[in-house]
Please model this.
Amino acid sequence: MSESLSASLETPATAAAPKGLFRRLLKNPLGAASLGVLTLIVLTALLAPVLAPHDPDAASANDILASPSSNFLLGADGSGHDILSRLLYASRVSLAGAALALAVAAALGVTAGLVSGYYGRWFETASTWVTNLLMALPGVVALLAVRAAVGPSLWTTMAIFGVLLSPAFYRVVYTAVSGVRNELYVDAARVSGLRDPRIISRHILIVVRAPAIILAASIGSVAIAIQSGITFLGLGDPSVPTWGGMLNDAFANMYTAPLQLTWPSLAIGLTAISLTLLSNALRDELERSSRPKRRRGRRDAGTATVRHEPVLVHEDTEDTEDAPSGEILLDVQGLTVSYDQADGSAKTVVEDVSLTVRRGEVHGLIGESGSGKTQTAFAIMRLMPPGGQVAGSILFEGADLARLSAKEMTRLRGKKIAYIPQEPMSNIDPSFSIGSQLVEPMRVQLGLSKAEARDRALRLLARVGIPDPERTFNAYPHEVSGGMAQRVLIAGAVSCDPDLLIADEPTTALDVTVQAEVLDLLRDLQSDLNMGVILVTHNFGVVADLCDRVSVMRGGRIVETGAVQSIFDDPRHSYTQSLFEAILDDSRPRGPLETDVTAAASTQGASS
Amino acid sequence: MSERLLEVDDVVVDYPVKGLRKKPFRALNGVSLDIRPGETVGLVGESGSGKTTLGRAVLGLAPVTGGAIRYNGRDISGLSRSERRKLAAEIQVVFQDPYTSLNPSLTIEQILVEPLTAQDVAKSDATRRVRELLDQVHLPSDAGGRLPREFSGGQRQRIAIARALALSPQLIVCDEPVSALDLSTQARVLRLFEEIQNRTGVAYLFVSHDLAVVRHLSHRVAVMYRGEIVEWGDGDQVTARPQHPYTQKLFLAAPVPDPAAQRRRRAERTRLLADGA
Model:
């Protein structure tokens, strides 16, 4: 029993763990301490025959309730057993019982979770049903029933208890596996011809490992507590010494020898607390571990190149002077955005950017990911993640936005400066109806009454081309399509008659036919409301469609700026030229495959 | 006919919908096309058109409920898992998202060796082949020991291409392989696709929503809409002189990177929509 005990207690923590986890756990004070206590407890349990001064079952009527002495270090219990010896032997039984419950729970739960998470189908339905049943079953009642049926065996009781605990493992593993089942790399492994066991061991188990280990430690602590509870109530086998049984005996003699309660309580408490703390430490270490970054963040993407070359400015010529000539609405000069780094330095993502937007003008900011175009747009709205610093001046209607207080900025945003995001769905709160999200800003910014705001929202929804405004007003975000959601956001953006609209890739997430409709809508609204617009995009087609002016950005700087026609006709900067060369729209179609066979076949190729 | 590498014949794909007695969702409704050896067939459509489902059906990742998919004359639509595994050396895949198609916890070498060992290639041969593959996709040979997160999007897509090439397949299903990439990276990766095809004679089923990309790379093009192919033929014919109204609408909706031309296209599109109304 002792081998299986140590094996099942140790394996979840070490054998399956990633390399270095054990070492990291030892560096964590909580982890080291709890691991130390646990090792000590397991060791004393294993070495009980060597350490115990007396036979745990040897009782003598003379020693009943003897006080601690050199012979009985912790005294003797109500039947005259040596408490220390009994405690040592009891820890073997108690730990093994808990380990058995844990092993049964883990074996059942992990296997069922893996199979139903990976294969799904009927097994998933069946095991979810069984899991729900087990969770609804009152555990202690079930244990009593089992005891009545099969007799007082500690091992049977703990095995059954393991079954009752298994839903915890099932849930965790099932969720992790079904999350990863549809990852593309699992599909790729399947297409590569890997067998299922290999896919599971290489790609699936790795995801399950961390949560399962953490869970095992905390379930272990629950198992110890429950096991003690069961034996305390006398539901175990009374003939073997257990911590719970000893507690029961001490409880009976509480008034004559109160000190005896301490020892089993201490053993139970220490083990349970150590396991819980170990599970916490494991969570800290496993979840802090080098989790791969999914995408390069906006921040570190913009590594500003330090070459200080002048911006290529296309002067307005006669060809381009039909561009809007309203008053200058926004005048950005020398805008620099930097982020404080953990090591005290600052990382510059936008450097010395200057641009102007006139009333009624659409200014495009184009560049590849990490060029700083979105950072520029966010800096103008002063919406930056913590640690962001803005330098330079952002003159908007006589005020320098770079110097306004946060409170003054809040008054401007939404009312004077509006924003359209890239991902429509993640920018609407799923728990509120679309109407309430439109009405709220208007009531705050324009001071409208509820009825007035509702009226205006309905008119706006109709204006942005939503066929049944009443229905959409009452709908929740998940009930509308992405294109509709973007229209709703546009309606929200123009709801307070802004002077400046900042659109960050407003059509990138949309299908091309929807994109065309949204671009049409933006153009109409822009000319109706005579807004200035900053349009952030990576698509030259969108620039050609909507913009009057364009600035090409790279590495946090504007490299070339001017009227759209002029830039498209005559890109001067080598970077702008290389971007234009990468455009495929002008490339010739590839034409049919040139082989002898296909020449004959191509005549019938177009039939469908 | 032997010159058909892949034949998709009247294929229907139904996805079961959760809930008792709910009608299944029909993702593909009687789709037919064929691919010849060494050919690129472009598959264009908007989200929900079924283009990705068709790719997945060819890969055996989507349930084919009707029709047949024939590879070299043999129906592969209802193969068992073990029979399907034998096809791994013939049909491969490059997915859209280079961030999730590579297991973040494996090194590049482990990722590239995986398909080789699955086909019982000896370990030493496999490592030699990995160096070859990295060279083919123009990555440094010391890339093998690093993790996917150390590479940019374009480089990761090269790794995914190398994995697809590992077993020297006849057909690669490319599911939006350049959609997540920047413009200039996209151009370089497309050039790599072309270069590999010219050298190895592999055929591509190239799924994309981007008409310009499809036109650039495809010998023949199929346009999908709501689970059906609405137009199918030679690339220059479909992309330059589309016949079907949906194709026309789709092509006019894509903005051209030229202000004057885009103004004309916009007017044409408005006229077409007005006619249709």
Observations:
- Chain B touches chain A through 86 residues (CB under 8 Å).
- The CA atoms of residues 38 and 198 of chain B lie 8 Å apart.
